[in-house]
Amino acid sequence: MKYIRKSQERSSVDLGWLQSKHSFSFGSYYDPKHMGVSALRVINDDMVMPGKGFGTHGHRDMEIISYVMQGALKHEDSEGNKHTVPAGDVQRMSAGSGVMHSEYNASNTDQVKFLQIWIQPNKMGIKPSYEQKSIAQNGPLTPLFTPEGGENALSINQDASLSRLVLNAQQTFMLASGKQIGYLHIVKGSVMVDGKEFAAGDAFAVDPATELNLEATAELEALWFELPADF
Fold first, then answer.
1. What does DSSP say about strands 11-14 and 18-22: parallel, antiparallel, or unpaired?
2. Is CB count within 10 Å lower at the N or C end of the chain?
3. CA 193 to chain centre
4. Residues whose CB falls within 8 Å of the CB of residue 195, separated by 6 or more in sequence, listed in order
5. Interval 171-227: pLDDT, tens
């Protein structure tokens, strides 16, 4: 493993209405040892209180993914998109040449928990765009985002892919990073890899051409990123 990021070592933010864990440097948190992996720049593990959220603000030249784990997220942007993203759905906003948007908890009674993920694009200044989809799990490893997108995955403007890994307790599985850098972020449960156990919020990266033998030590949900090796 070329990089290990343990959950308890992440930056913590508690603003009352927002509780967040930052895997990489973000906002006022800066650590030169944790600036991201390849084109993956941000993974924020956010819990937003009922009726609260992020007011209108701007982005540009970034692929912004929301992975909702609990509750529902309300999205509005300057391109006219108005959507609710429930748990289980995935969303991608390409900020491109510039977009204003807001994100709020869609409920006035329940919390929303989601991962905010930023990936730097391979094309700058493109027209902003938006995609959202509910993608059913198909086997242990299910693609969510690929460069081309398609019937069963959303697209992303980078030579990168993101898949959801789901394993039952004691189930084994082999991951291979191929020609790209691999990065595994644990969403729920726990897994044993090369004699090391990783639990919710933990993550690690591996070099290209690496094979990983995984054994879930509890029911597992994780995100597997395949990222450019030459970024």
1. antiparallel
2. N
3. 21
4. none
5. 999 999 999 999 999 999 999 999 999 999 999 999 999 999 999 999 999 999 999
Nearest one of 182, 154, 203, 149 to 38, comparing CA atoms = 182
**pLDDT by residue (tens digit) across 81-124?**
999 999 999 999 999 999 999 999 999 999 999 999 999 999 99
- In the DSSP assignment, the letter for residue 159 is S
Give the residue carrying structure tokens 């189930």. Answer: 171
Residue 199 pairs in a beta bridge with: 190
Sequence-distant (≥ 6) Cβ neighbours of residue 84 within 8 angstroms: 72, 73, 74, 75, 106
167 contacts 217 by C-beta, under 8 angstroms: no
Residue 203 identity: A
End-to-end alpha carbon distance in the chain: 18
Residue 84 identity (one-letter amino acid): T
Pair 215, 197: CB distance under 8 Å: no
Residue 57 near residue 49, CB atoms below 8 Å: no
| Dist CA 68 CA 103 (whole Å) | 12
Place of tokens 């019937």: 151
Residue type, 220: L
DSSP, residue by residue, 99-129: EEEEEEES-SSS-EEEEEEEE--SS-SPPPE
pLDDT tens column, 43-59: 999 999 999 999 999 99
Cα–Cα dist 213/227, whole Å:
19
